[in-house]
Design brief:
This protein has 599 residues and is an alpha/beta fold. The protein has 24 helices and eight strands. Helix 1 packs antiparallel against helix 6, helix 2 packs across helix 21 and helix 16 packs antiparallel against helix 18 (346-358).
């Protein structure tokens, strides 16, 4: 396989196109919203009880603040170090503050990381262009390489540190180790979990140096890495209790299954999700077989991959994230296992796989390479286009805009108040009206806030524990006789207010003397004004009535199901007696037992 600089440059060009397209096409994500709010100076907005528009939320994500304000907010509100957020704020101030512009900073970091994969590959003796292609094809690398979070920058610092130290492999000079250690420390100051690979890299180099035995490089690495530990601790110790309950309790077998699932997903993404349910088991088995075959290939061709110190270093870097996450979960009784955390291992897995494939006989090498790259290409296509691999904000906002009509959207506050709300607002039309509902909002308060609307659309964005509880609560509130579920969409349910029985007759019918100055309800038709107002005053929980004409038999209420309607009695047309209205078709009417009909 061609392995020169032209091939590596071509891979970088392809990667730029793929990653930019993914950054443009993928919907807004939960975690990205904190980046936008934080760097704009509003890390935890206090959402009002009134109806807001999506444009108002997006406006809070514009502008930038300085490093001190970001550091202070991080220590108070989140569990991440500040280096990426400082870089993102500077980038947004220089370029643009939209989501796509912020994602492009991560794309730039990812392209630099791919270039470093090529450098490391050349220095350890594996094909650089193939290693870069396999890294780009890993779903985990591409996904974390475009989101507006610190994964791409942490990956870049990790690869820079290893490339720096490995560049002087024969001479083991202390200053190379010190610079490499500083860069590995910078990776942890971007994302704490980058420490897993950093520690593995230091251990790998220390093992090689002790075997020589010359340990100056390893001492330099440890010294450089140690510089970052006090500042990491200063942030983490202030943050450690801010996201309690973020992950489920630790369970060994569940954690191992989750590691296997996300380990596969890092390689081939969500491909089983794109096929029919009946084909999914067979498809999953086939992909599992492919992943197992590649693992066996690396094991069988182990002695032919790079040099002994290099392959030992790469193996440690691949194993470090899953082992570290298991240890972290056991220590804190949680299960912090997610695809993006395991993605730190993908460049090193690609380097090992590149060496293993390159060691195959020429007639076998090309079919294996093409098979792996074809599967990875399908996975990246899903990354860019398939809703199954995207978070639900985009599809939910589009469905809500279609169904809400002249009503209002009810949106869960979520765990932190920014992930659910910010992503939904980013994807919604600017004028879309919505109310943010907190977990502790009483039912009566929710109903009072929607009293002016005959139609509500529930955005059932259940993305964390709080939003799941809120979504369930909202469904229970509107599953009552006074509301009717009229339409559904992606993660949304729309309800309309209706009348049922003798107690729910009219809402908001006023005479001209009693109509509120700013009220949305109509003035009663002139010829039945007295009767309508009398009925409205007597109703315990009235419903809407349209202000139509008062001809005999005219239906005043258009929402009632079936034949049930409020109609003007023929003998009362043009009259204003209190018995002028009756409700038909519900089996109850308003007969008071004396032959007269009333509310």
């Amino acid at each position: 396989m061609v392995n020169g600089w032209r091939a590596r440059a071509a891979v970088l060009l392809l990667a730029g196109v793929v990653l930019t397209a993914a950054a443009r096409l993928r919907g807004a994500e939960y975690d990205e919203q904190y980046t936008l709010f934080l760097t704009a100076g509003t890390p935890r907005p206090a959402w009002p009880d009134r109806v807001m528009t999506a444009a108002e939320v997006v406006a809070l994500q514009t502008g930038t603040v300085g490093p001190a304000a970001i550091a202070q907010a991080l220590r108070a509100t989140d569990v991440h170090p500040p280096l990426y957020f400082w870089a993102a704020a500077a980038w947004r101030g220089l370029v643009a503050d939209g989501l796509f512009a912020t994602r492009m900073l991560s794309v730039g970091f990812s392209l630099a990381s791919l270039a470093l994969v090529g450098v490391i590959a050349r220095r350890v003796g594996v094909p650089g262009a193939l290693a870069m292609l396999l890294t780009l094809g890993c779903y985990g690398f591409a996904y974390t390489g475009i989101v507006a979070r610190g994964f791409a920058l942490a990956n870049l610092f990790t690869l820079m540190g290893i490339a720096c130290v490995i560049s002087d492999w024969p001479r083991r000079q202390v200053y190379c180790g010190a610079i490499g250690g500083l860069l590995l420390g910078a990776a942890t100051f971007t994302n704490y979990l980058a420490a897993f690979v950093a520690v593995a890299a230091i251990a790998g180099f220390a093992t090689a140096d002790c075997m020589r035995p010359r340990i100056g490089r390893s001492v330099g690495m440890l010294a450089g890495f140690a510089v970052a530990l006090p500042v990491d601790a200063w942030f983490y110790l202030a943050q450690r209790g801010s996201r309690a309950g973020q992950f489920p309790p630790f369970a060994l077998w569940a954690s191992l299954r989750r590691l296997a699932q996300y380990g596969m997903a890092n390689l081939v993404g969500g491909l089983p999700l794109y096929v029919d349910d009946s084909l999914r088991p067979a498809f999953s088995i086939a992909l599992t077989g492919l992943a197992t075959t590649l693992l066996i290939l690396v094991a069988v061709r182990w002695q032919r991959i790079a040099t002994p110190p290099a392959r030992r270093l790469l193996a440690l870097a691949v194993a470090a994230p899953p082992v570290g996450l298991l240890a972290l979960g056991l220590a804190f009784d949680s299960t912090p296992i997610e695809l993006r955390y395991l993605a730190f291992a993908t460049p090193f897995a690609a380097l090992l796989l590149s060496g293993a494939i390159n060691s195959l006989p020429r007639g076998t090498r090309l079919p294996v390479t093409l098979t792996v790259l074809a599967v990875q290409a399908l996975a990246l296509g899903g990354l860019m286009t398939r809703p199954e691999t995207m978070q639900p904000a985009q599809a939910t906002a589009r469905a809500a805009a279609t169904l809400v009509g002249d009503g209002v959207v009810l949106l869960p506050f979520g765990n932190d108040g920014v992930g659910v709300v910010g992503a939904f607002a980013r994807e919604a039309t600017p004028a879309l009206p919505f109310l943010v509902i907190r977990r502790d909002t009483p039912t009566a308060a929710i109903l009072a806030r929607v009293a002016a609307y005959h139609r509500v659309t529930l955005a059932l964005l259940a993305q964390d524990a709080d939003s799941r509880m809120i979504a369930t609560h909202l469904m229970e509130i509107f599953a009552t006789p006074n509301w009717r579920r009229v339409s559904d969409g992606f993660n949304v349910a729309t309800y309309e207010r209706i009348c049922v029985g003798a107690s729910d007759v009219l809402r908001g019918i006023h005479d001209r003397e009693t109509r509120p100055a700013a009220g949305p309800d109509p003035v009663a038709p002139r010829r039945i004004r007295t009767a309508a107002c009398f009925a409205a005053r007597q109703s315990a929980d009235p419903c809407d009535v349209a202000p139509r004409g008062a001809d005999a038999g005219e239906a005043f209420h258009g929402d009632l199901p079936g034949p049930a309607r409020l109609r003007l009695l023929a003998e009362a047309a043009g009259d204003a007696r209190p018995c002028a209205l009756r409700q038909e078709g519900d089996g109850e009417g308003h007969d008071r037992g004396d032959g007269r009909h009333g509310p």
